[in-house]
């Protein structure tokens, strides 16, 4: 009985195995058949480029009575029809039943079939599909130049056509931006936040057929006028011509007016105004035209001197800037003296420019505590009193005046700072820059130095070296303390061991 049950078990197992194997083979065969079918379908689909020519065979190996070609359900051509006037010009039927389509257009995309009647009255059919691929085209809305003020919100929409379906993206001032894709429409909502957003906004389509398709608009952000001056101070003298210039940027374009001491200018043959458009430099902020406005004053008079105002205004606001037309000297500039300096004196050299004759200079100097010259104390007011000297001007043949003056009675190895003014009959010049110098001695300071030059790497490195020295000192002290502790512990053990040996010797002696 047991043997019979075992035999039945083996038979059932074998049957199950063969059934599963047969099922697997059947599934594998189905996969192969489906793959072959798909391959055949793929072979019947022709992907061609626009304006190409394609030949669709009917695959007839026998003689036939007639052949007809259809696109979808519409008859294209029938070999029995002798009147070919109804056949499109770009379609031709060959004697072997093949259909030729030339100058393919997107409208030629579709399913094509041929129906062939053989000599033995058998009808043969063949299916084809044509997909005409063409480069993308794009359309944007709105288009052209759009002017919007800061705070405005608007939407730009881009629509594309092409086969395969084009991929769309935005470029704003040449840079890619995030976008939202809806089918073949691309939309972007823009909130105008600053004038830096001025520039081209392009929609780009690409489907790897032909060139990229690009179309765009230009956003001009409206903003109130911005005024920049070429010179805040214009130096002149009576009888010369002087030009006052200001650069204006504004969208919409600004109206500019000139004022002298708050009074609107009147123009004649001696005083005139004109404007010049400057070419933008191509940056984001310079897509707007910069207008240079010039006020020309010929044969300057004393009454022409003073403050002028260049005022620009558009519907979003106004802005102005002041220009000082003066006959005073230009600020003096100290020059480095290459000569050897004394420990108690110092030779100063400075240069100034004045279109009118100079009268005198005012020289101010004071000593600075050398210990105070550190990066941490540069901004401290030393409260040292200035010594003021009046120095007559020497005659000069031209507008450039170079003056040399020696300061005597200075303290050796000391640091001083000095400043100078110049005066002509129009008044005093602006102050020169403050210059520091050191007299001979052990003072580590350049012969001439401005405040900015005192912030050198050497100064900071010396501070860092001092901090590092302190850290090294602390580290060495820790090592020393550690070694001292170890040494003390060793000494304690040595003392205990020596005491033990001594007591042991005394005890042994007594016992003996």
Question: Would you kindly provide a written description of the structure presented here, covering whatever features stand out?
Answer:
The protein is elongated, with a radius of gyration of 49 Å. β5 and β6 (99-101) form a beta hairpin. The strands form 6 sheets. Strands 1, 3, 4, 7, 8, 10, 13 and 14 form an 8-stranded mixed sheet that branches. The protein has 512 residues and is α+β, with helices and mostly antiparallel strands. Helix content is 19%, strand content 44%. Residues 1-42, 443-502 and 504-512 have low confidence and may be disordered. The chain has helices spanning 2-44, 457-511; strands at residues 45-49, 54-56, 64-71, 74-78, 91-93, 99-101, 110-118, 123-141, 144-149, 153-163, 167-172, 175-177, 180-182, 185-191, 199-206, 213-229, 233-235, 242-251, 255-260, 263-264, 271-278, 290-297, 306-314, 317-326, 333-335, 346-353, 358-368, 387-392, 400-407, 415-424, 427-428, 435-438. The protein is built from 2 helices and 32 strands.
């Amino acid at each position: 009985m047991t043997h019979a049950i075992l035999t039945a078990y083996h038979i059932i197992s074998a049957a199950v195995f063969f059934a599963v194997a047969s099922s697997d083979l059947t599934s594998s065969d189905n996969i192969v058949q489906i793959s072959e079918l798909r391959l055949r379908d793929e072979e019947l689909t022709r992907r061609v480029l626009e304006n190409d020519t394609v030949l669709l065979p009917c695959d007839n190996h026998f003689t036939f009575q007639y052949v007809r070609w259809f696109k979808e359900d519409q008859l294209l051509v029938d070999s029995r029809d002798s009147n070919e006037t109804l056949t499109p010009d770009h379609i031709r039927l060959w004697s072997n039943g093949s259909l030729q389509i030339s100058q393919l257009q997107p409208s030629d995309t579709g399913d094509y079939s041929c129906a062939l009647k053989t000599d033995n009255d058998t009808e043969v059919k063949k299916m084809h599909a044509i997909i005409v691929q063409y480069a993308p085209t794009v359309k944007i809305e709105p288009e052209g130049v759009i002017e919007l003020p800061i705070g405005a919100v608007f939407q730009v929409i881009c629509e594309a056509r092409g086969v395969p379906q084009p991929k769309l993206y935005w470029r704003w001032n040449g840079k890619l931006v995030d976008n939202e894709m809806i089918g073949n429409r691309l939309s972007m909502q823009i909130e105008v936040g600053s004038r830096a957003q001025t520039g081209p906004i392009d929609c780009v389509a690409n489907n790897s057929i032909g060139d990229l398709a690009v179309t765009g608009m230009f956003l001009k952000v409206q903003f109130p006028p911005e005024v920049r001056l070429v010179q805040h101070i214009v130096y002149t003298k009576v009888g010369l011509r002087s030009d006052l210039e200001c650069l204006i940027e504004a969208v919409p374009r600004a109206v500019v007016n000139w004022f002298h001491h708050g009074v609107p200018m009147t123009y004649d043959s001696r005083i005139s105004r004109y404007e010049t458009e400057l070419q933008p430099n191509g940056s984001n902020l310079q897509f707007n035209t910069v207008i240079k406005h010039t006020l020309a004053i010929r044969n300057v008079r004393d009454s022409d001197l003073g403050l002028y105002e260049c005022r620009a205004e558009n519907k979003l606001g106004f802005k102005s800037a002041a220009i000082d037309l003066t006959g005073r000297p230009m600020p003096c500039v100290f020059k480095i003296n290459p000569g050897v300096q004394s420990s108690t004196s110092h030779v100063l050299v400075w240069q100034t420019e004045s279109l009118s004759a100079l009268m005198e200079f005012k020289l101010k100097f004071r000593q600075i505590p050398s210990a105070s010259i550190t990066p941490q104390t540069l901004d401290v007011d030393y409260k040292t009193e200035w010594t003021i000297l009046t120095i007559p001007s020497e005659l000069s043949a031209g507008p450039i005046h170079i003056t040399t003056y020696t300061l005597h009675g200075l303290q050796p190895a000391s640091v001083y700072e000095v400043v100078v003014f110049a005066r002509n009959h129009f008044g005093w010049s602006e102050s020169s820059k403050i210059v520091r110098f050191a007299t001979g001695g052990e003072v580590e300071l350049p012969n001439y130095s401005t405040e900015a030059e005192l912030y050198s790497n050497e100064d900071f490195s010396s501070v860092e070296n001092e901090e590092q020295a302190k850290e090294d000192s602390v580290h060495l002290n820790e090592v020393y303390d550690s070694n001292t502790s170890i040494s003390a512990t060793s000494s304690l053990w040595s003392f205990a061991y020596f005491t033990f040996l001594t007591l042991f010797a005394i005890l042994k002696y007594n016992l003996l």
